[in-house]
Amino acid sequence: MKKLVLIAFVILSSFCFAQTKSILFIGNSYTYYNGGVDVMLKNIALAEGDTLEVESFTAGGASFSTFCNNSETFNRIRSRAWDYVVLQEQSQLPSFPPSQVETECYPYAKQLCDSIRANDSCTQILFFMTWGRENGDQSNCANYPPLCTYDGMQQRLRESYVQMADDNNAIVVPVGLAWKYVRDNYPEINLYQSDESHPTVEGTYLAALTFCSVIYGYDYEFSYCPENIDFNTRRDLIIGAVGAVSGNWVECNIRESLFVHFAPVWLTNKAIGAEYMGVNVTADFDSCVYSGNGVTYTVLPEDADYSTYYSTFYFMVEDFLADQDDTVDICFTLYRRECSYSLCEEFYYCVLGGINNVQSENLSFTNPVTNGKIQFGMDVVGDYEIYSMDGRLLVNGLVSGSEIGVSQLKQGMYLLRINGVGYKFVVE
């Protein structure tokens, strides 16, 4: 994909069109403890303006066979066309010897998956990979040595859940791998209740973060946090969740997830950035002529690359005639096989007046900014403006030297314009 030159004006997403998704959880106490992974996931999404319509059907100690022998399970599945259905097996069973798992677990996982797809073939099935017990499964250690330690139990859970996803063309939400990452790297965080099995609030939050990373992408904001979790713990749990998802993209079949969101970027030649996740994806740009606030424009693809697991592509907005700040609506649809995903968002069109020329050489500076100063590799003289990602002018002035102070800016992404050229930068 060719590199785009940053010029002229920006279109910024104001996220006024929140996404609404539906999700059904089928599981046991690992799902419903501490108020529920489902509720915590809903709160994370809501804090970013997205709506998750969640339902759960749970019972303590229940297994897939338990649910397959309960007609209410299938009533819940058939109650609507779900975007996602989560399946969580009894906490010990997938860690048992492979031959036992093959007979006591896999057939029931298939029965549930077949029922879900019979209801709606486009529902995405998520297997909730759980965690090993804090010191292994001592009650079964004598009969199967891998269960004598946490690592051995976690490895068997990993193998079984990945196998179930492969067998049923489903996705694994690698909560257990996030759990292992946090245990290995942040041992001061207590993820277990005193029974060495059930999650603390930190453990449930870690699970919800991992689900959110799969459903919405691992660049999500994650601004919601339970009150009793401090800043450093929150940060470390996010790192664990994001690392588990991004580091196990292929093994956990997360590439089969299908979602898209617009990426606020500087406009060049009227191109807007959008990010998507998924393989074998195509986009519908046919007859894409829309009208927003009296402005008509046409959307055309540019250099789209649909082959990667997680990527950015750009599309053109033609015949955009606005000469002042305005808002426009943009919609498009991604397709994979017989399934589709549509998204509309409202964009803020910010005219940055007086930008008519593009410098032939890019201005280099430290990015991300970590010390409260944008530091250039040379002396710079000229006017500058710094904008927030929703188009608000935050700082402006005259630079004459090799740096601009930005200590007043919070962590996040910003837009900088100097002498008619625009740049994105991040404050950490």
Task: Characterise this structure.
- The protein has 428 residues and is an alpha+beta fold.
- It has three domains: 20-256, 3-Layer(aba) Sandwich (Rossmann fold), CATH 3.40.50.1110; 258-351; 373-427, no CATH class.
- Helix content is 26%, strand content 33%.
- It has ten helices and 18 strands.
- The strands form three sheets. It has a nine-stranded antiparallel β-sheet with strand order 9-13-14-1-7-8-12-11-10, with no helix packed on it.
- Helix 2 (37-47) packs across helix 9 and helix 8 crosses helix 10.
- The two termini are 28 Å apart.
- Mean pLDDT is 77; it is low at 1-17, 261-325 and 348-361.
Query: What fraction, in percent, of the residue positions are helical?
Result: 25-40%
Distance between the termini: 28 Å
CATH superfamily of the largest domain: SGNH hydrolase
Radius of gyration: 24 Å
Short summary:
This protein has 428 residues and is of the alpha+beta class.
Question: Topology of this structure?
Answer:
Elements lengths: L8 E5 L6 E8 L1 H4 L4 H11 L3 E8 L5 H5 L2 H7 L6 E4 L10 H7 L1 H14 L4 E5 L21 H18 L3 E3 L1 H11 L15 H16 L14 H17 L11 E10 L2 E7 L4 E3 L4 E4 L2 E8 L7 E9 L7 E11 L2 E13 L21 E15 L5 E13 L6 E7 L2 E7 L1
Parallel strand pairs: 2-3, 2-4, 4-5, 5-6
Antiparallel strand pairs: 1-7, 1-14, 7-8, 8-12, 9-13, 10-11, 11-12, 13-14, 15-16, 15-17, 17-18
Helix pairs in contact: 2-9, 8-9, 8-10, 9-10
Supply database-style keywords.
alpha+beta, 3 domains, disordered N terminus, 9-stranded antiparallel sheet, Rossmann fold, 26% helix, 428 residues, 10 helices
